[in-house]
Amino acid sequence: VKDHNKNGYAIYNEQMNKKALRRVVLETNLREAIANEDFFLEYQPIIELSTGSIVGMEVLVRWDHASLGTISPGEFIPLAEETGLIIPLGEWILREACLQTKRWQLQGLQSLRVSINVSVRQLQQQGRFVDSVKRILDEVELETKWIDFEITETALMKNEEEMIGVLNEIKSLGINISIDDFGTGYSSMYHLKSFSVDTLKIDCSFIGEMHTNPKSKAIVTSIIKLAQALNLKTIAEGVEVGDQLRLLSSEKANAIQGYYFSPPVSSKEFENYLLEGYMF
Ligand code: C2E
Ligand code: CA
Ligand code: CA
Ligand code: CA
Q1: Which of 5, 37, 103, 113 falls 20 to 30 Å from 251 in CA-CA distance?
Q2: What is the DSSP letter of 200?
Q3: How far apart are alpha carbons 209 and 247 in whole angstroms?
Q4: Interacting residues of 37 by C-beta distance below 8 A, sequence separation 6+
């Protein structure tokens, strides 16, 4: 084979091949990783603005790969969704998150709501998803009021009738429902009309610019006003600097989440926040 490295096209191809190869490797390793439970969860605090105290946590999964190190969910969740492996993985995540939440409750630490990301593939199993949720909560003996499911707007847009049915069932169990990445999908308003949700998570793309871009700030302000009018709670995601915090506070967002307070941390570190009664 000739050396094509001086040729931009060949280099581009090589990078593509590397990416494709990594993808194939991850895809073949994923099934085994699920069987071996080679994953761990991190927890990011959700802080109530009016009190400065932690009121919840979002659970974020990571893959602890033997040779490649920690792999981010942005890379393997799409693979898990395509292959259907998100179903067993999602159950594992739900069980682990509920077990941890229950453990903290039994330790006498402040009770917190746990927010769990749910993929559209999980919801599309219809009755089977709701059954597995019920089974896990029974098993762990965790009350449904401590659970929040984060569902992206794009997920809601798929097969709408079916989604309305599943979400109503979930809600009737007493589980909180949040729309994740709110504002990034099309016809956001439409979804607010058809689905009964509890919380809007304002996407980090608006929060990240709200102190520098008047348009972004106007959008954030409008989402908060809209949520108030509809009796929904708001959580601002991706708060990184004090200027954003101050604006969100004066606009009366309910809660915030972001690196400004804490990145997602291990259960051990999160437990320390609770033990110290951390106030932000
Ligand atoms: P997401 O649900 O929108 O999660 C928020 C992402 O923003 C997380 O990335 C989090 O680490 C990151 N983040 C938090 N604070 C900040 C901040 O201040 N600035 C910036 N720039 N980023 C911040 P992560 O953990 O890499 O997760 C990426 C995505 O993977 C999630 O986006 C979610 O869609 C998906 N994901 C993660 N865990 C799960 C899971 O257990 N199940 C499913 N189905 N999807 C998951
Ligand atoms: Ca989320
Ligand atoms: Ca989000
Ligand atoms: Ca996102």
Answers
A1: 113
A2: E
A3: 11
A4: 92
